[in-house]
Amino acid sequence: MTEFKPERKEVSISEFFDKNKQMLGFDSPQKALFMTVKEAVDNSLDACADNGILPDITVKIEELGKEKYRIEIVDNGPGIKRTEVENSFGKMLYGSRFFEERQTRGQQGLGISAAILYAQKTAGFPTEIVTKTEKDLTAYHFVLDIDIRKNSPHTLSITPEIWDVKSGLRISLTLKGKYISGKQSVEEYVRETAIANPHSSFHLILPDKTIEIARSVEDPPQIPIAVKPHPHGVELGELISIFRENEEETIEEVLEGKFSRVTKHVAKSLVEKSKLGGKKISKLTRDDFEELMKTIKETEFMEPRKDCLSPIGAEGLFKSAMNSFREYHPAYFSQPVIRGPFVFSGHPFLVEAIAIYGGDLPKEDPIKVLRFANRVPLLYQSGSCAITRAISSIMWNQYGFSQPVKDQIPVGPLIVAVHLACTKIPFTSEAKEAIATVPEIMDSLDILLKGVARQIKTMKKKEAHKSQVEEKFALIEQILPQISLKSSKILNLEPPDITRIISKVMGVVAFREVNGELFAENYTEKNQSFKVVLKGEGQFTESVKNLKPFQKVKLNFSKEVINSTEIYVDLPEPVLLGAYSLPKVFSDE
Amino acid sequence: MNEKLENIVKQIYQEMKEGNIPKVELKSRNKENIIFDPKTSVWKYGNNTVKRYASKANSAKGILKMLYIIDFVDEMDAGVKTSTLREMYYISEGWNLGKFESQDESDLMVEDLEVMTNYLREEMRLRPEESGASVIGNLTLTELNRKGEKKKMNCRDDVGDAGYTIPYNVEKEKVDLVSSDVDFVLAVETGGMFDRLVENRFDEKMRSLLVHMKGQPSRSTKRLLNRLNKELGLPIVVFTDGDPWSFRIFASVAYGAIKTAHISDILATPTSEFIGITASDILRYDLPTDKLTDKDVEALRSELDDPRFNIPFWKGEIETMLKLGKKAEQQALAKYGLDFVTDTYLPEKLKENGII
């Protein structure tokens, strides 16, 4: 028997990812095209966010041949300094964001390089990048590819170019891909991105159509603040790297200076407890770091800062939902609900959601769930995602939705958009397609979603009441009169008077809003006297004396009052309240 | 105007005039209200009635729709026109709130009117899309054509191989049965078997009238069988596949169906005989078979509770089929050659049933 000894050799990161494309989501031509657009767009949005720019992004997909596409993404971001281009695009794991906690889309600076590499391998074309910063007079046009063995960029040419913009970046890649429309398509991705980034506008030029998405809000979101990592939020490897990068300092100085929520006093006690007093960082062994890590885990710190998160916000969510789903004529948009910030493993996070109900949304299909992580839509792996799981685990029948299978997505005309903002999204894999089911996140999602579901339930009740009222009025105003007309026409007789029948069918005093005015209509067979009270911010009262059967009276409330209040009526007879508010009837005020 | 239809309108009008919520009343058309009439040996609606009041939007709309149909029938009457049920459904597009949601809904309401008035829909000038079933054999009849002439024809000598096509209306004013020279009527379920019997000249050899039912027979086909039996005194013999659905074809020919229980008297022929294929035939003739599906088994089980099958012959056959777990088609008889059905099977079975 021969012993098998694998030959060990250094593998560059580029080489590793070249062999493990699926880890980054480049596992099929269709997905590769999607991922390329996604990585570029995410980078553009991040760059704009860092500089307080309202993003205008153009995505252009051209079909060059069978499974061969040219993808171009143009943004109005800050551009990249000429000297930084190679490293930013050509080197995997290059990024300015290591060792700081901050809510960003891209977290490892991996994706766009992977796309460049993929293009290079599948179509054989280098990537073209045109960048202009505000300071530079001209733009620079780079043609580059990646040296896989060395994990380093390889520039083929740099030419200055005139680009008449303040600043911006244009990247174009030619790759083997497959363009689709519908589910998990570029279009869906950009449309959902627009929902999570209401301050952005998009211009999509696809092989089969062109789409313009205008921005829904005019203010850029607050620039997320970078905070030092919380001791509970770092892994051993990160801990070691942070110390290795600061070997000239003492352990206490690094603990105090490079981590948040570590005071001088705390730093000292950490070192003492880990028995590292007086040691130089360069002399620390792996065991020492493990000891330090153990101490950190056992120590309580102040919770991390939470002001570093950037939620989409109530206004943004509401306006972008209105913009995006107008075509369905929804009956109802829930108020956006935001919960948090909370903390898991030293990372602050918050969750927010909005629900869109009714209208032309399909009634027989499972509800539509839109998942967002740090303003990036998640289109794949929905089954294993915390958001989907949290929705499935709710007992939806309590909120008026059918759930054919327990612990599955319910059925009904509903869209729920859920956003998780976090300094470190716990993805289930490198491809960043699904959020892991971290208990703290699951708990907050559960409460968040129930809050949204309750609103929909209330809305459905109002709707049911409204349709009941509308049906009654359809009966007395249209169907019964038509029966009267039709039967008399067939018999060649005078149409009978149907007021008594209407009174029998209704048997109530009805309140109805018509064009912003409120009317009381007496469908009983007696005179009626009553007091109408509208309650909202204030209270408004009007008394009606001796309203005769089949008489109608206009109540003198203003449009604003009617819109902002609920109606209460003081009347012993049954009352049918108008189609605009929940009925609450009581007879002794 | 048709008197009974007019009465429905008058009643609605009168109620309204008196200030009452208008309503229509008709016999309940569900399974619970089907009873056996020992006098005529058919299944009919019992005495339970339902009232539909216009106090709810839906039933009020129902009343309005009914008025529109009545008006439409009256209009057709004036213009001497007829309409298919489907045409009427599309015409209802223009009836505002009286518009039907589906053809099922409008078909059902026409039947409701039949139940209420005892008029046949054919008399209301409404007809189904196609009847299409056919007859071959020595039967002479006259049919009123479009020119208003009574055209006389013999269903053996004056027709092609496809036979005489049964029109949607086979009432006396349209089709008059003049004479026949046959001993019995053989009603056949499938087209393949009908063609086989025609090719083998079974009508001439066995002095029979062949009727192709085209699966579950239409109302006009059943009505024609009923008239052949009543007016010409011909025994009706039903020949189908051997499966639970074919058993139901026989039951509806012989005893009537729930949907049409209001006209069982004129549609059902209770003296009809069933000559197969039965479960015992499968064993006796060792016929090629198919396995019963879950739906077949379910259908057989529910037939055990169906009062129409509550006689020892049917109980035995249904239970045997369940035990066998198998069913057979009419054409399985071809196992023994193309002439087996006409030379052996049918003569044997007819003899056993005392038809010949």
Structural class of chain B: alpha/beta
Helix content of chain B: 40-55%
Q: Which sequence of strands runs across the widest sheet of chain B?
A: 10-7-13-12-14-15
Please describe the biggest sheet of chain B, giving its number of strands, its sense, and whether it closes into a barrel: 6 strands, mixed
Between the first and last Cα atoms of chain A, what is the distance in angstroms? Answer: 96 Å
The H/E string of chain B reads HEEEEHEHHEEEEEEEHHEHEHHEHEHHEH
CATH architecture label name of the largest domain in chain A: 2-Layer Sandwich
Largest sheet of chain A: 8 strands, mixed
State the low-pLDDT regions of chain B, or none.
none
Radius of gyration of chain A: 32 Å
Oligomer: heterodimer
Overall mean pLDDT of chain B = 92
Mean pLDDT of chain A: 84
Structure summarized in a few sentences:
The complex is a heterodimer of chains A (589) and B (356). Chain A is an alpha+beta fold.
Account of the protein in words:
Chain A is an alpha+beta fold and 589 residues long. Chain A folds into 4 domains: 13-213, Heat Shock Protein 90 (2-Layer Sandwich); 231-298, Helicase, Ruva Protein, domain 3; 314-461, Ribosomal Protein S5, domain 2 (2-Layer Sandwich); 497-585, Immunoglobulin-like, CATH 2.60.40. Helix content of chain A is 31%, strand content 24%. Chain A has 14 helices and 22 strands. Chain A has an 8-stranded mixed sheet with strand order 5-4-3-6-2-1-7-8. In chain A, helix 2 packs antiparallel against helix 4 (111-123). With 356 residues, chain B is α/β, with parallel strands linked by helices. Chain B has 2 domains: 3-127, Arc Repressor Mutant, subunit A (Orthogonal Bundle), CATH 1.10.10; 134-352, 3-Layer(aba) Sandwich (Dna Topoisomerase Vi A Subunit, Chain: A, domain 2). In chain B, 41% of the residues lie in helices and 18% in strands. In chain B, the strands form 6 sheets. In chain B, strands 10-7-13-12-14-15 form a 6-stranded mixed sheet. Chain B has a 3-stranded antiparallel sheet with strand order 9-8-11. Chain B has a two-stranded antiparallel sheet with strand order 1-4. In chain B, helix 11 runs antiparallel to helix 12 (312-324). The radius of gyration of chain B is 22 Å and the shape is globular. Chain A binds chain B through residues 471-472, 474-475, 478-480, 482-484, 486-491, 493, 496, 498, 500-501, 504-505, and chain B through 1, 6, 9-10, 12-13, 16-17, 19-22, 54-57, 60-61, 63-64, 67-68, 70-71, 74, 96-98.
